[in-house]
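Record 1 of the preview.
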Amino acid sequence: QYILRDLLSGSDAANHAINRYAEQYAIVSKPDGHYRIVLMKIDRYRAFVRGNDLPSRSVIQFGIMNIAGELCSERFVTETVDTGEENGLALLISMEREPEGMARAEWESFLSPVADAVCSAFGFGMSFIVSRDCVGLHELHIAFREAKDFAFCRVFRGGGTVILADEVRFSDQEYVYPAAREGVLVDALVSGNAAKAKEVLTSILQDTEKHPYPVINLAVARLALLFSTLAKERQKSGHFQRLAQVNDEILAATSLDDATVTHFLRAIDEIAETTDEKRSSRHADLIARVNRMIEETYGDPNCSVETIAQRIGMSSAHIGRIYKSNTMRSISESIFLFRMKSARLMLREKRRLSVSAIAEKVGFTSSSYFSKTFRKEHGMTPNEFRSREAVGGGAAEGAAEGAGSEAIDGGAAEDGMTVGGDAANTEGAAGAVSTVGTEGAASYQE
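->
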């Protein structure tokens, strides 16, 4: 193994080793012969490392070398090499029987039994990178370095692939990092749009496929810095534990492989999730503020989406959209429901107040319109409600609730009249769904 490693690394000891062991090892018996190096890469290598301790990995890698050596030696003089690098198994093949080389179909047919046997024995896939033809052992280290650079193509072609160095062609055009698309990526990440972020990330990475490896590493490094910066911002917002590991993994991304892409995609999901949580928290606070304002100003006939939005300092369209998407009803419907709830409470408990006075207290400028609206919502006039409440001891109230009107806070006691006034009432604001009398709500005009 030391001799073969020296050959692949281009060590000064390689020439001495060739001369010394030429008769002992058939693979180096012809210093000027034709050779190919085949890198054998375990697909999803990070998962392989996580699932196996170091002794187990060593045993498995030794098994892969035995399988590959035995199968490939049936056709060519072959030596297996543990290069000592991460995921660094290789085959050194003497091509004297095929000096003109082999077509892709022949290489795939030659290497597929190895992949099948490894999968059957250990349960994971293999990819292969075949170097260019080397004429002479002195060129092996150059071909080895090139083959390692071409290994990144697995990211674009998927696992279980055979990559031929002879087929890899780089673009003649100078690579320009897509700064504009990076901006789109940032916008998608900040807004929590994971699907769009993944689409843009994939396109940025795919653009590097036809360029030399140093260009790809530069793009990966820039993306790693971008993701790390965003992850750190989320950590400052209280998501340190969840994003710290992702950040470390991203910062370690100095090259492009399947693990690097996995780290990027995981970071997108984590950043999007924390963005959703942050947005949900902000929305819950906003909805609680709106509910408190409704409680404080529902008696004002001018209480509306516009007046509430003006007090908060947001556009009525924006605040209305957030409120409805989280509560499943509009702010106007909530104002109407609170007015109806307050009217029922006053009709039941403040019997000395006239219907006209109650109408005014709950924000109606016309008692006749209030009576009409109340009847449409509850199936009875305010006076009928009051009479039945007095006779039935609350039966009318239950009937009214059954008709479709609920408290704005999703069912708080009528005598509490607290809408978003404390944690108990606002906790579920972001996700509350109340069944409302939509016909009555629609008939209410601000």
